[in-house]
Backbone:
C-alpha cells in the first residue's frame, strides 16, 4: 500500500465536538466561564475508513496542547508530520489523557445568580484538588492551574461532512470527496504548498467551562476539540449571555461549506443543546458515517444565512432546529426555531436523510424540551480572509454588556 505524508498537523484555535467521557460532576451547572487557559494531552489520532473496517492509527505519543485566551485566533502551532495510508475516510478520533488542566484567572461568570455569584462576577481557580470539587473556585484570590479529571480514556470523534480521500493518483476517489491530491494541486497552482493536507485540531474557549455557582465547582461544557482536514475558513459563535446562557457555533471551510455545528445550554430547557450528529435510518450512498451516525445539516450562506439540522438524542431527534440571520456583523440577532420533527427527514445537496423524529418537547427519550422560538446574539466571528463578508478585521468581537472581554 502506498503512503502519502501530510504536511504538519496544526493546532488551530476555534471549534469543537463532545468527548465520549466526562468528569464526575455533582453540580447542576448554573452558567459558564471562559478560562484563561486550558491544556489537554493528546495521545493518539486515528481515521475510520468509509467501509467500516478497523480504525487506522496515524499518530501516537503524548503531546500537551495548551489553548489560551491570548492566542491569535486560528493561528497554527505545528505538532509534527504524520503519515496517512491511501484510503477513503469518514471520521477522525482523537484520544486524550484523562487529566486536563484549567486556569481561571479573574474571568467573568455568565449565568444565573446563585450563592452570591451573578453574571459579571470574577472567578478564580484556587483549589489544589480537582476542579469538580466544591470550592475549587473563588471570587477572589490567586489563580492556580487546576486539574480536571475527565475519568476513563476520553476521546473526541469527528464525523466528516465530506469523505476524505487520500490517493496518490486519484484512482479511487469518488465524486463529492475532499480529494487531498486535487486540493494540493489547486493550492500549488495558486502559489502555495503542494499538499494542503493539514489536519487541524480546533478548540473554542468561549464558555468552555460549565460552573455551579452555588458550590463554586466546575467541569467542561459540551465544548471540545474537533479534528478536521483542509483549510479552515471561519467560525461564528452566537450566544444568549443572560441568566440562561446558551451557545451555538458554526465552523466553515475555506469554500464556506459547513463543517461543524456545536453548542451548549447551561441551565435552561429553552435552548437546544445537541446538534447535527444523529443516528440515521438512511443516508445518500457514499455519505460519511460511523455505524449509523452521520453529520446532517442543510445550510445556505446566501443572504443573511439559513440552517436546518436535527437536535440529536439517543432515540432520534428532539426536533428540527432552524436558524436564520447568522451571516451578519457581531451584535446581530440570530433567530431560532424548534419544529416538531414528525417526518424525521432532511434533504441537502448530498441527498435525503431519514431518522426517527420526535417532538421538541423531548419525546419518549429526548429529555427536556426546547421552546418553539428563541434568539441568540453574534458574539464572536473569526474569519481571517473575510470569506463571509461580515468581519473585515478578524476576530470581530461583540459588545454585550455582560461580556468578559474575550469575544
Residues:
Amino acid at each position: 500500500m502506498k503512503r502519502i505524508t501530510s504536511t504538519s498537523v496544526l493546532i488551530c484555535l476555534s471549534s469543537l465536538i463532545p468527548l465520549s467521557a466526562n468528569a464526575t460532576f455533582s453540580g447542576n451547572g448554573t452558567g459558564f466561564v471562559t478560562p484563561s487557559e486550558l491544556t489537554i494531552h493528546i495521545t493518539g489520532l486515528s481515521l475510520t475508513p468509509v467501509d467500516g473496517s478497523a480504525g487506522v492509527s496515524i499518530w501516537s505519543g503524548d503531546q500537551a496542547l495548551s489553548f489560551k485566551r491570548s492566542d491569535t485566533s486560528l493561528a497554527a502551532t505545528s505538532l509534527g508530520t504524520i503519515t496517512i495510508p491511501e484510503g477513503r475516510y469518514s471520521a477522525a478520533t482523537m484520544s486524550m489523557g484523562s487529566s486536563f488542566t484549567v486556569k481561571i484567572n479573574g474571568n467573568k461568570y455568565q449565568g444565573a445568580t446563585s450563592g452570591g455569584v451573578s453574571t459579571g462576577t470574577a472567578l478564580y481557580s484556587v483549589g489544589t484538588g480537582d476542579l469538580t470539587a466544591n470550592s475549587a473556585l473563588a471570587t477572589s484570590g490567586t489563580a492556580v492551574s487546576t486539574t480536571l479529571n475527565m475519568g476513563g480514556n476520553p476521546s473526541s470523534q469527528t464525523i466528516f461532512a465530506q469523505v476524505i480521500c487520500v490517493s496518490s493518483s486519484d484512482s479511487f476517489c469518488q465524486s463529492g470527496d475532499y480529494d487531498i491530491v486535487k486540493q494540493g494541486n489547486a493550492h500549488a497552482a495558486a502559489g502555495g504548498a503542494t499538499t494542503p493536507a493539514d489536519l487541524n485540531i480546533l478548540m473554542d474557549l468561549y464558555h468552555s467551562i460549565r460552573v455551579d455557582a452555588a458550590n463554586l465547582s466546575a467541569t467542561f461544557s459540551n465544548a471540545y476539540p474537533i479534528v478536521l482536514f483542509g483549510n479552515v475558513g471561519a467560525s461564528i459563535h452566537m450566544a444568549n449571555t443572560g441568566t440562561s446562557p446558551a451557545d451555538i457555533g458554526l465552523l466553515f471551510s475555506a469554500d464556506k461549506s459547513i463543517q461543524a455545528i456545536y453548542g451548549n445550554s447551561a441551565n435552561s430547557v429553552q435552548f437546544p443543546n445537541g446538534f447535527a450528529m444523529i443516528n440515521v435510518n438512511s443516508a445518500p450512498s457514499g455519505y460519511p458515517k460511523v455505524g449509523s451516525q452521520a453529520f446532517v445539516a442543510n445550510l445556505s450562506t446566501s443572504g443573511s444565512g439559513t440552517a436546518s439540522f436535527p437536535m440529536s438524542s439517543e432515540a432520534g431527534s428532539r426536533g428540527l432546529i432552524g436558524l436564520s440571520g447568522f451571516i451578519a456583523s457581531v451584535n446581530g440577532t440570530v433567530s431560532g426555531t424548534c419544529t416538531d420533527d414528525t417526518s424525521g427527514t432532511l434533504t441537502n445537496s448530498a441527498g435525503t436523510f431519514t431518522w426517527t423524529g420526535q417532538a421538541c418537547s423531548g419525546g419518549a427519550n429526548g429529555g427536556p424540551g426546547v421552546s418553539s422560538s428563541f434568539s441568540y446574539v453574534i458574539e464572536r466571528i473569526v474569519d481571517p480572509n473575510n470569506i463571509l463578508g461580515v468581519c473585515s478585521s478578524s476576530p470581530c468581537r461583540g459588545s454585550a454588556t455582560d461580556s468578559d472581554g474575550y469575544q
